[in-house]
Specification:
By secondary structure, the protein is of the alpha+beta class. Helices cover 43% and strands 27% of the residues. A six-stranded antiparallel beta barrel has the order 5-6-9-8-7-10. The protein has a five-stranded antiparallel sheet with strand order 1-2-14-13-12, with helices on one face. The radius of gyration is 44 Å and the shape is elongated.
Length: 354
């Protein structure tokens, strides 16, 4: 057999060298690509999982933003000013139907007529009994049966008067219980106040304050708005005897002169200039955000944290915003950027995969 040529040995050695170098380069390439992919995954994970900005404390969401983030978002805070000693309280009035007052007046007049009739009848039977008693004792001109009959009529008439008086008292009590002492007394005394109401020269209105709002003394006059522009002057009458079941606030009776457009059943907005018993703080409109029909503000608890607090926007401030009670003294709230805080709070709660 012919021995292999030297050139053949050189070719085989070159092929083995290339295969050896190719395997090493493949391992190196795999290592580089693998490391790059791992770095990319780590970077993606760090972007997809930013540091959490919302934590829960005592069941309340606490939003944490650095001072730089606050500045970039345009968030500005300010301390709330105390409410003025006197302000306009917004109330809600309902024009009451005078029908029940008219019915009560008819009942009272009927009971009063019965009392007067029973009293007259008693006076006659009492005189007859006294005369029969004198005749029977002195001259025996009447029989015992006649005396007893006169006495019986007298006793029956006394009972009838007592019953009529009890009915009159019951109607008076009903009037005071349903409409208060002022209207009840007006019914009993037949004053012009009651006469004007049942004749519809005036209307009776029940003015209800928002829930939780109280005033030290209800103003003697108030102003209601009819059809968006007509102003109606209301005159204070008394404290109402029952609250509005829908509004659940303190209620008062006011009267208003009858005029075009003012009808029983109408609901009106009423402005009462009064001293508020609970004081409060002035929250500007720019600090209020709305969520599901409710008003909220963001209170700054320290330089980096905010909490969302619900407020009742039922007492408008004189210039702008609302008067709110129940807030910490001198609370610092976000007056600019509150909507950004709300968006950030809910964005931070969305899971990463979403």
């Amino acid at each position: 057999m012919k021995p292999p040529s030297p050139n053949r040995h050189r070719v085989i050695a070159a092929i083995l060298l290339v295969l050896a170098l190719g395997g090493g380069l493949g391992l190196i390439f795999h290592a580089i690509v693998g490391q790059t992919k791992a770095d990319d995954d780590n970077d993606a994970e760090s972007v997809a999982n930013p540091p959490t900005r919302v934590t829960m404390k005592n069941g309340m969401a606490v939003l944490t933003l650095s001072e730089a983030d606050q500045q970039n978002a345009g968030i500005e805070t300010a301390r709330l000013s105390p409410a003025p000693a006197e302000d306009n309280v917004l109330g809600f009035a309902t024009v009451l139907n005078p029908g029940p007052l008219s019915d009560l007046n008819n009942q009272y007049l009927d009971a009063q007529t019965q009392v007067e009739a029973a009293d007259a009848k008693l006076a006659a039977s009492q005189a007859a009994f006294e005369r029969a008693n004198v005749l029977y004792r002195d001259q025996q001109n009447i029989s015992t049966a006649q005396l007893q009959s006169a006495q019986s009529s007298f006793e029956v008439d006394k009972t009838a008067l007592a019953a009529a008086q009890a009915r009159l008292n019951a109607v008076s009590g009903t009037a005071r219980e349903a409409w208060g002492n002022v209207l009840g007394k007006s019914l009993i005394d037949h004053t012009p106040l009651f006469s004007d109401l049942i004749a519809r020269r005036d209307y009776l209105l029940k003015v209800t304050l928002p829930p939780g709002v109280t005033i030290t003394t209800p103003p003697q006059t108030a102003s209601a708005t009819l059809n968006g522009d007509t102003k109606i002057r209301l005159t204070y009458l008394s404290l109402a005897t029952a609250a509005n079941p829908k509004l659940q606030g303190i209620a008062y009776f006011y009267t208003a002169p009858a005029q075009d457009g003012l009808l029983p059943g109408l609901n009106l907005e009423v402005s009462l200039a009064a001293k508020s018993a609970e004081g409060g703080w002035v929250v500007p409109n720019s600090a209020v955000v709305w969520l599901e029909g409710q008003a909220w503000i963001y209170i700054r608890t320290d330089p980096k944290t905010f909490i969302r607090r619900q407020i009742a926007p039922n007492r408008p401030a004189e210039n702008d915003g609302y008067i709110v009670t129940g807030l910490p003294a001198g609370a610092e709230v976000a007056v600019h950027g509150a909507q950004m805080l709300l968006s950030e709070e809910f964005r931070a709660q969305v899971p990463v995969e979403d």
